[in-house]
Design goal:
single chain, alpha/beta, seven-stranded parallel beta sheet, six-stranded antiparallel beta sheet
Length: 471
């Protein structure tokens, strides 16, 4: 079949693609920026990239007519703007574009919406579903709550809280009930639902067999890790305080933390449905999903992560628009030195950040990350998805990968920390020489003052880092 896959660089889309290719389908991958697409190891000849911005109808002209199934996996949960309005416009544009094709079925992954009072995030998901339902095709909607999988925002929040806090004074929403589902089951459902007449024009809640509170999920993770944790809930933590609590303790961004807290006050328990029987699926319980997730992380099999999605914010253009750092009106710190081994230096560059750190002045990097968190930035806790592999679009602590070509010997990063300007950090290994360049384009007087204040620290950090990479 010919499949249209939206959100192909997102958390679900990146994992769904190999499953579709294994089934022998031809997949049209919709991406906002082709440079961010991670090509799979097999099936490349059955992929065609379509560069589409769902907020710009004119970009939809590249969608082919001969489609069988389309997946709508576009969400803006961590966007800093009016994500509900953006999601509505995207859905309307998508519906109109698909109405002009021969597509028979659209499959939409939404959220569980069984309560009368919904969070803004869940209400937006329901609105999108209603918009898509008006199309000239059969709509199949799967509504999921918490998804447990390596790289998922839900799992990483659970992990961060349990790993970092032996004692927790937590908000009362930890007692809210939910029905988690493993990422493997989600992918099975999406694949098996394609062209299945019994699911046409229907919606299903999908979840595992366990109905748990968020508190029980934290306790389950602690048990799986062999950790003793003491967790106490208090009624005095407001949604705003709860959002800050998640934001400072975990690797999540503040917009995502706020959306999650709003949703965590709403029970997300599945309605009774026969979807597992219809599709022939055996759902994993919570502890099994945890075990499979931990195994994937241990084996470095994290194929996608929520933090690698680029949403509206500091970087609201295509990443490729930033691949050449400017020079005019910029401050530049450039350091060159010979390398003892080109391959070893490149390996060090490709291992930067995350658990490895930045080779020199680690405590200063940590302080900078903490200060960034205090003013609403991403901080250092995002880490990296893979320990030694980088592609365009990956998050790397408080940087974003703009360009990564190891054979060429060039890595370019763009700063997503809070700054009075824009910053790039570039590494090149050419002719047995390391060229390390930090570029800062200030905004106004405050930007220039900032550069002068941090220059002494840059002299210490950047020179030391260059020496460690080169030697």
């Amino acid at each position: 079949m010919n499949i249209l896959l939206t959100g192909a660089t997102g958390y679900i889309g990146r994992r769904l693609l190999p499953n579709l290719l294994e089934e022998g389908h031809f997949v049209y991958c919709c991406v906002r920026d082709k440079k961010r697409f991670r090509w799979p190891t097999v099936g490349k000849d059955r992929i065609r990239l379509l560069e589409i911005d769902f907020l710009i109808p004119e970009t939809f002209d590249v969608i082919p007519q001969d489609l069988d199934v389309a997946f709508y996996l576009v969400h803006s949960m961590s966007s800093v703007g009016d994500f509900a309005e953006d999601e509505q416009r995207s859905a309307e544009n998508f519906r109109e574009a698909l109405n002009n094709t021969k597509v028979k079925q659209v499959i939409y992954l939404s959220g569980i919406v069984n309560q009368e009072s919904l969070s803004k995030h869940l209400q937006s998901r329901l609105n999108v579903e209603e918009i898509l339902r008006e199309g000239r095709y059969s709509l199949t909607t799967f509504r999921a709550g918490i998804i447990i999988g390596s790289g998922s925002a839900s799992y990483e929040i659970i992990r961060d809280l349990v790993e970092k806090l032996p004692v927790m004074i937590a908000p009362k929403w930890l007692n809210t009930k939910c029905q988690p589902i493993g990422i493997r089951n989600v992918l099975q459902i999406l694949v098996r639902a394609m062209n299945h007449p019994e699911v046409f024009d229907k919606d299903f809640d999908i979840g595992g067999p366990d109905v748990l509170s968020y508190l029980e999920m934290l306790q389950g993770y602690a048990k799986a890790r062999g950790l003793r944790r003491w967790i106490y809930t208090v009624p005095v933590m407001t949604p705003r305080l709860s959002s800050y609590w998640l934001y400072f303790v975990t690797s999540t961004s503040y917009p995502l933390a706020k959306s999650l807290v709003d949703s965590m006050n709403v029970e997300v328990v599945c309605r009774e449905s026969r979807i597992n029987q219809i599709l022939g699926i055996t759902a994993f319980d919570y502890m099994t999903s945890l075990s499979k997730t931990m195994e994937a992380i241990e084996m470095n099999r994290i194929s996608s992560s929520w933090k690698d999605a680029v949403n509206d914010g500091e970087l609201n253009q295509k990443l490729s628009d930033f691949v050449k750092p400017p020079e005019k009106g910029c401050f530049i710190d450039k350091r060159e030195m010979p390398v003892s081994s080109r391959s070893n230096s490149l390996d060090k560059i490709w291992n930067l950040g995350g658990n490895q750190g930045w080779y020199y002045g680690t405590w200063l990097w940590k302080i900078r990350g903490y200060l960034d968190k205090l003013v609403g930035g991403v901080g250092l806790r995002r880490g990296r998805t893979h320990p030694n592999d980088l592609i365009v679009g990956d998050a790397l602590d408080f940087w974003r990968v703009l360009y990564a070509e190891k054979e060429e010997g060039r890595l370019l990063l763009f700063a997503e920390m809070k700054l009075p300007g824009e910053a790039w950090l570039e590494f090149k290994v050419m002719d047995d020489k390391l060229i390390q360049t930090a570029t800062f384009r200030p905004k106004g007087v405050w930007g220039r003052l900032y550069w002068y204040l941090v220059t002494p620290f840059h002299g210490f950090i950047f020179s030391g880092m260059a020496r460690r990479i080169a030697n």
